[in-house]
Amino acid sequence: MFYRTIRLLPALVASLVVTAAGAQTSGEAAINAKVANTLKKLTLEEKVAMIHANSGFTSPGVSRLGIRELVMSDGPHGVRREQGRYWGDATPSADSGTYLPVGVCLAATWNPQLGYDFGSVLGSEAAYRGKDVILGPGINIIRSPLNGRNFEYQSEDPYLVSRLVVGYIKGVQDQGVSACVKHYAANSIETRRNFVNVLMSERALREIYLPGFKAAVQEGGVNTLMGAYNKFRGQYCTHNDYLINQVLKKEWGFKGLVMSDWGAVHNTVEALYYGCDLEMGTDLSMLPKPDYTKFFLGDTVVALVKSGRVAETVIDEKVRRILYVMYKTNVVDGQRKKGAYNTKAHQQTAEKIAEEGIVLLKNDNKTLPLTNAVKSVAVIGYNADRKQSMGGGSSQVRAFYEITPLQGLKNVAGNQLNITYSKGYNIYRGAQADAALIQEAAEAARKADVAIVVGGWTHGYDYNVWADNAYDAEDVDKPDMKMPFGQDELIKAVLEANPKTVVVLMGGGAIDVSQWAAGTPAIVQAWYPGTEGGTALAKILLGQVNPSGKLPMTFPKKLEDGPAEKLGMYAKDSINMYYTDDIYVGYRYFDTKQVEPQFAFGHGLSYTSFAFGNLTVTKSGKGATVSFTVKNTGKVAGAEVAQLYVRQEVSALPRPYKELKGFQKIALQPGEEKKVTIALKEDAFSYYDDNKNAWVLEPGVFDIMVGSSSRTTQLAGKINL
Ligand code: BGC
């Protein structure tokens, strides 16, 4: 009986697959039929109305046919504004939502399941609020620590991005609404984002900057995509023939709609022909009564078609894509999921992501977790008592509530700890070390068993997203990687007062810790960890949660150590920005050029220890199967992210010293051992040859490196392919 069941399984699975695929096709066919039918009924004016916004966050339907507007909301970290048609709308009473940890924190979990859970919360809250499209995930490659929007993005590594983005999108879209992957493509800085013309090799584009988007389309099935503000090879990304028409729509088969970033359309004819389906944006100068018919894809288009200069089929193609998304997500007809809002489950998901995303960077002498012997803690630093949800630009979230690090410690520690708080520094751009604040903080530290400094970057003033103290924010980049507001002086003084000092860094990525890192026993990277971030952080500091986050980007020692800075982050001569760092982004550069980072890509410590062993690498088709064991050799339960890197020993084109091609997060009880198997397909060994304009698998010997970070690979094997 058992045998029969097993034997029948493959056939059963195959029939299920066929049914599922068949159902999908007939579903698609039904949608296409509805779209075609509706399209036939529309006048030219109605069609043109549909291809541009009619408010800050909606585009028109056709009321005559009972087709309502398409309603959007910024993600990527929460659903904004209940009825928000504009950014500055008055606040309706229930205008708050679950504030999820930021994108880099999600990436630092290295847990694709949490990507799905993250998306599910967003999708569910969007559905509840009657939103059709969540403007996220943001997945631009983190190329330089200076980019103001790194916090919204995920990683310097295209493979890690690809694995997380798929779950995120499915999570959103399984709730019946659309995700919008953004900003396509090569939007790796904010300053002058509306002007810069990014130039890079085809190889860098294919190997580094596109894989996340490709996975979003082909594996995630994303319904909508947003073009970036910048130019790419001379054309604005939002209407870029190569990126949108050739690659996205033709090569990858994207069926959904391409919308512009807000105000990113610059030219009617280019938008018409180079792939933009929907022009979004709010011209603030037009408020309170903006005239959307004056948009590039407004009345001008009607005139162009009527005079015979543009074929109506060009408009039809855009409307077809918009209607396709509308029918697919039951905007026009059908049953929508109801969704839910600010539920306990959503808050728990936010906390879980923070718990798994916070990274323990350094922990000498078992400084953390704080033991029962610690009776008093001096909490220091502006970020300890600061809410972050309303900072950063378009990703701001009006949080239902937000537990700060200070509040979290108080809640979790209860009577166990005597907690004092001092601000330590001021947060306005250009603020220097404040002697009085430093002295107060140092005194508090001296009197306490342990000092915890919570500092790092800031998002900007609450409710003023483009404030002059914004470092992690839209439209700005960081001037350098140095700690702002005199925090170096503060930390050094606190360390002198109490060597048992823990530094918690908040922010979207690397910051220069070189002045004090060596003398600081424990350092924690907390990102902006969302609504329950303070709870998650406190649980980690107190040992109720064992940290398992890993850095999704390299932390250089000094800004100038990094490739983008060395190799031309800002073009001085013109608007042209040459990505001469090419494929050597992040650890690909640091490892290949043997530059020692402060903290390596993939690095993150635990309160337990893990042993890797029993590596086998076997050939399988044009790829390989890699298996190994991971054992928890310590005393507490924990999770390790086993990372698999591949290197080709000799190749016609130069290749990075190692590249991430697989990973798995494994939860283990003390003493427990698990076997991990990772299948590497042909693409894990291939590179993009821009002489041939194709991915090639060049035969040769490949090193397989497996371990706990990009710089700590405990296991090594080889395979000849
Ligand atoms: C941002 C987008 C955002 C849009 C709407 C733009 O400025 O670049 O990411 O979705 O505004 O708020």
UniProtKB/TrEMBL annotation:
Residues 640-710 form the Fibronectin type III-like domain. It comes from Filimonas zeae. Gene3D superfamilies: Glycoside hydrolase family 3 C-terminal domain (3.40.50.1700), Glycoside hydrolase, family 3, N-terminal domain (3.20.20.300), Immunoglobulins (2.60.40.10). Belongs to the glycosyl hydrolase 3 family. This is Glycosyl hydrolase. InterPro entries: Cellulose_deg_GH3, Fn3-like, GH, Glyco_hydro_3_AS, Glyco_hydro_3_C, Glyco_hydro_3_C_sf, Glyco_hydro_3_N, Glyco_hydro_3_N_sf. One of its GO terms (molecular function) is beta-glucosidase activity. Keywords: Carbohydrate metabolism, Glycosidase, Hydrolase, Signal. One of its GO terms (biological process) is carbohydrate metabolic process. SUPFAM superfamilies: (Trans)glycosidases, Beta-D-glucan exohydrolase, C-terminal domain. PANTHER family: BETA-GLUCOSIDASE. Residues 1-23 form the signal peptide.
